[in-house]
Every structure is written in C-alpha cells, then in structure tokens.
Amino acid sequence: MNITFIGLGIMGSRMAKNLLKSNYPVTIYNRSHEKTKALVEAGALAAPSLELAVKNAEVVFTMLSTPEVVEKLALGPDGFVRHMRLNAIWVDCSTVNPSFSRKIGKLVEASGIRFLDAPVAGTKAPAENAQLTFLAGGDAGSLAQVQPLLEHMGQKIIHAGPTGQGSALKMLVNSMLAQSMALFAETVHLGEALGFSRDYLLDTLPNFPVIAPFTKAKAEKIRKGDYEEEFPLEWMHKDLHLATLSAFENNVSLFMANLTKELYARAKEQGLGREDMSAIFKIF
Known about the structure:
alpha/beta; N-(1-d-carboxylethyl)-l-norvaline Dehydrogenase, domain 2; 2 domains
C-alpha cells in the first residue's frame, strides 16, 4: 500500500516514523523541507511537490495546524486533492471544526476521493510510542481499510459516526483538556496563597480522584519550569476558538470554554504561544 504523509510537525513526524518502522512505503511532504531530513534517513521518500507526493498514493494522511492550512494545501490552486487517484482515501488527522470537516468531505467525495476525519487524542510521547487514540468520522468501510495503518500509530480507534463526528469528538476532548489545565494552574496558585508549598501541591493534588490523569505529567513540567512544547499553547487556543465557533454554529452557550479561551489568549499575548499548554500556569 502506497502511503503519503503531509505535515511533519510534532505529531505528524512521529506518526509517519511509526509507519516506517512497520515497513510501509511512506512518501512525505512538508512545506519546510528541513523537517523531512530525519524521516528520509529513516527510509521515507521526500516529494518535491504536493502533486508528486500524492499521485500514486492509496492513502494520504494530513496532520496540519489549522482549517485554513488544510484547505489551502488540499483545495488551493496547487492543492493535492486534484492529483489523487480515484477512490484513494484522504485521512485528515488535523484538529479542525466539524463543520469544516463536513464541508471538505462533501467537496472531495464529489471528486471521487474518499474522506475520513480522524484527529487524535494524545501528545508528543503517545505519538512517539504509537499510543494515540484516533477519533474517526466517515464511512465504516473506508475506516476498516485504513485501520491496520492506524493501529501502527495508535492503541485505540473510535468510530464516532459519519463525516465530521471525529472532529466533533475532538472538540469536546480538547475543550475539557484546556479547562482542566487552567483549573489546575489556578488551584495551585490559590494553594500557595493559602500557605502550601508549590512542591507539596504538585505532589498532592494530582493524586486526588477529582483530577484529570494527564495532570501528573503537567505538574512535573510546572515543578521543573520546563515548558518545552508537547502540545503548543497557541494550538490549544486555536482549538478553543474552534470549539466556541462550533457552539455558535449550533446555538449553544459555552460560558467556561469562552472564559478559558481568553486565558489562553492572555498567555499568547505574554509570548507563551510556542511553549507547552502547561505554561498557562505562568499567567497566574
């Protein structure tokens, strides 16, 4: 099976590497060619253009930053969709809003290309260790066809429903993730004001059953003052924006998510956008 991977950031590069480790032939494309070097050394073929990247591919994976970037690379003047083989499958693992996934899905399927939205739950370490969870929307038959590939990059695959529902489920997951991180940061701040040491709070609070499990790892980043990006704060702000946009589209009020979005916006204003999402702690 010929596979193409487009987008080699923190997540995409590790996902593509796991396919290479499983001896799949992988062609890669990234707008910054510098990011292709390590994967070429691991056995990937770097394509000089989107057209050449996808022309022989049976499955194309994308892991890109925003809906605007996805649309430009897929459907823009030099977009890859027009160069894909009929009946090939495009699996978009980017975090985008569900209405965008549904719009894109209709457009590409009218061109004879099958489409799955399959964003992932997990950050850098799960991506490296093939422990991601795929949240998939789209045709069950197409999902079954790419499932062996997903299993080499993740440990769990959830079929959330028709096109757009994978992206919808990711909106919910990341909304909870962002709010849990901000709540933990604020609580530690209060705890210090009440006379507890930061180390005591970082040791104690993550062990209570009311705390989200991921908080233990983020507590260690706060303890060490090590905010090297695993999930960039600016992308969490973007995901909250997409969640609130989805709420607007569906006439739903989101009090907490909108407030949390503004907290991450403040952190971006303070220059923390390229740090890990746990750097939200600094604004308190």
